[in-house]
Amino acid sequence: MHYFISAGEPSGDLHASELMEAIKERNPQARFTFLGGDLMTRAAGHGPVIHYSRMAFMGFSEVLRNLRTIAGNFSTAKKAIESAEPDALILVDYPGFNLKLARFAKEHDLKVFYYISPKVWAWKAWRVKQLRRYVDRLLSILPFEIEYFSDKGVNAVYVGNPSQEEVERRLKSAGTPGEFMSQYGLDPQKPILALVPGSRRGEIRNNLPIMDAVARRHPELQPVIAAAPGIAPDFYDSYSDYPRITGDTFRLMHFAEAALVTSGTATLECALAGTPQVVCYRANGSKLSYNIMKQLIKVPFVSLPNLIAGREVIPEMLVHLCTVDSVDSRLSEILPGHAGRELQLEGYREMRQRLGTDTAAAKAADTIINNLKSK
After folding, report:
1. Which CATH architecture has domain 165-355?
2. Its pTM surpasses 0.70
3. Candidates 3.30.1950.10, 3.30.70.100, 3.30.530.20, 3.40.50.2000; CATH matching 2-160+358-374
């Protein structure tokens, strides 16, 4: 079988690479053409049609500035699909781009699978119609999504959450705190405060200055920035001079005393790593933006640990509420010796139970291969 896979950002590259390995275990002759990154390159044995570093644009203004690049990427992707003539298209998150590919694929009578679905239950609910029309099987990684999608006529199945199994595997090979400190030249006598400002330039620009200012109020901690692959080092220099670690965000969070994390997949990984955190999502910081966001978002939380647990496990400091004072106050509550720390860790345990024990990549691979065989 020949699979065309599209992933447009670092987390998608990781999850897609795990799915590719699972498909290869079941189908050693499997071939892949893909949009993605270095992890998918390793799994496929060759490079991508487009690297995700040329695809990851965030927010209206950034998308507007890069419309020509985005249009060029889409044209390249369509030509690659026509040339590859795959048996199936597998989409991984990244809905603005991938749903357009789904429509193109259905017009060419291709089977379409969506692994890690768009969060239409939170915003842009109109995308449900596109999922129902252009996607043959939605492979959900969040247990609460199934009822939502089933009610709306989308063919969805829960396959487990890939972050949980990936975290458990990485924990086994993480090493010790001393080894980590030595590897990156950190002070072994000072606890780490992980600053995780996101993987996109807009996220970093908006959130890292707040994180930097909060960190300076805690001289007892050792702030370290989780730098994203594909972002030039000098970009970070404009917002903070704290040390950076690139491409090792999970271990940084795991060995940290606490973390400040921009909302996204990293919040779930941080929770699974067992590190207390505060969610920071500054955007442009205006109250008007916050009120608009509250009208558009249809769920009570934006971070995955809270959504999975069904209650506030970690504090969410959003838009104009994401100030140095407010973030610092919530950070102080989860440092050692404070009651908020154990409360958050108890919430993590509850969240793990709700995720279950299914191996997501394996179950997703089985679903895709069995569906194609039945065809």
Report:
1. 3-Layer(aba) Sandwich (3.40)
2. yes
3. 3.40.50.2000
